[in-house]
Known about the structure:
Layout: H1 2-38, H2 70-106, H3 108-123, H4 126-137, H5 141-168, H6 171-178, H7 183-219, H8 231-238, H9 247-274, H10 282-294, H11 300-308
Helix pairs in contact: 1-2, 1-9, 1-10, 2-3, 2-5, 2-7, 2-9, 3-5, 4-5, 5-7, 6-7, 7-8, 7-9, 8-9
Amino acid sequence: MIGIRLRRLILIRANALGWFGIGVCTLFVLLVIFGPLIEPVDANKIGGTAPFLRPPSHYLLGTDELGRSELSRLIIAARVAILSAVESVAIAFVLGTVMGVLAGYFGGWIDEILSRVMDFLFSFPAYLLGILVVVVLGPSLTHAALAIGLVFTPQFGRIARSATESGGSRGYIEVAQACGRSKIWILSRHILPNIMSPLSVMIGLTLSNAEGAYAVLSYLGFGAPPPTPDYGTMLSAAQQYLTTDPWLTFLPAIALVVLIVGFVFLGDWIRDRFDPHSTLSMSSVRAGALHETTVEPVSPGEEILSGAG
């Protein structure tokens, strides 16, 4: 019973962190929706006031080297941060799922070709691949999201392929094939719905990595082009003022870290809800309680009495 109580305490703590992650992500989504309405001034307005105003001042969080409101830029940069993570994961999810399902269901030469493509993407250095794609297509938010999506495609592809292979041998698939159902019908009605659980877990766990990867690309100048506010470009521009005006570096860094931590806790929360093998899921706690109840030792006297009955 001590083990069950300990696991329940861990579960409660995990739930609290999960709700913290949900709250952080909800806050950033609200900034995406209502950001243009609540920003104090235009985030790209230059010369509205003196540069390098320390917070609090005429503007709540001060101004940057061009006299632009730091608060307005942080609010608008939240939109870029959320869109970059969501677009990247969406691209990786779609490409990886299609490749993995086709490879796992059809097998043969299709599996061989698609598996080699995923192996190539997986073995290629992640940031080098991202930079290469952005250099060829040009720096923009969409191109950076595409580059990051390609980096994470093999992870979704391998999960989809493995889940499709394991699901393809189940009885209801064989029954559907015996009834003359088309392959498209089987894929859409049986295979895809049954592999969404592990893919949903992967989506949650990849959001934080995708946002971190985009921050690196934008810091290097391969993200959204200026004057679009972006946490990575804000950090890159502010690093030369770190010793004199450190808040220009700390504010976007704090916002970026809070968002990534929120994504991490959200991913853990999704994993604990959808992954049946998670040790923190409620089903595992209940299973552990049932196991500890059923394996309780029986005294010899109780065995005799039960035999006599």
